[in-house]
Design brief:
It contains five helices and nine strands. The protein is of the alpha+beta class. The protein is globular and about 60 Å long.
Length: 209
């Protein structure tokens, strides 16, 4: 009960201009990622209170030819029942789901480096993604069992997943603080997004492109 988050979060999503316009014009739409390497499992990703980082990400994708024109979409997010990995309660749960997944799979996935990343930050989080999806899968099964047995459920599935990440080069020689440190929130329940909007200010990374 005390873990349910009642405050609102400003999130920023780096994307193509066309995607940005479509979601602003029809906020009932939802962009659901299902990549095997996504850091927090399946869902729609936002940088929490970080317009600049979303702009940097979009610009990187534009330079790689993966999107046509870099843009940033803003969102007002109600975290709701949030699996917050900044809280040890949730990180400690992952070990059990890892064990259960290892029993299902003969070959477990691994977190992998991207060749172009000099900092070796394991940007392809295939193992983390698989374990988090195992967690969601088991929770959904438990819900269905309760619903059939009792006619109601006692445990809600997660609306959002949140975590802080250390990424990039050290901020200064010998620092443990990294230049790309950020908090991401992955939205699984579309109803957690109260509104999409276009930020009034563009990130400088896009303006400079």
């Amino acid at each position: 009960m005390y873990d349910n988050r009642h405050h609102l979060i400003l999130g920023f999503h780096g994307c193509d201009e066309e995607t940005c316009q479509r979601l602003v014009n029809d906020p009932r739409e939802f962009h659901f990622n299902k990549n095997s390497y996504d850091w927090l499992g399946n869902g729609m990703y936002f940088w929490e209170n970080n317009l600049e980082r979303a702009g940097q990400w979009a610009l990187e994708k534009q330079k790689q030819g993966k999107i046509r024109k870099a843009a940033v979409l803003g969102a007002l997010i109600h975290p709701g029942n949030c699996c917050d990995f900044l809280n040890s309660k949730y990180t400690e749960q992952l070990a059990a789901y890892y064990v259960n997944l290892s029993k299902r799979l003969d070959n477990m996935p691994h977190n992998e480096d991207v060749k172009s990343d000099p900092h070796k930050d394991k940007l392809l989080r295939k193992l983390d993604c698989a374990v988090i999806e195992q967690m969601h899968r088991e929770m959904s099964i438990e819900q269905e069992i309760e619903r059939r047995k009792y006619g109601f459920v006692t445990r809600d599935t997660y609306d959002t997943v949140r975590c802080a990440f250390l990424e990039g080069a050290p901020a200064f020689p010998g620092a443990a603080i990294k230049l790309k440190n950020h908090i991401q929130i992955c939205v699984r329940n579309p109803n957690s997004i109260l509104a999409f909007f276009r930020p009034r200010l563009k990130p400088s990374s896009i303006l400079a492109a």
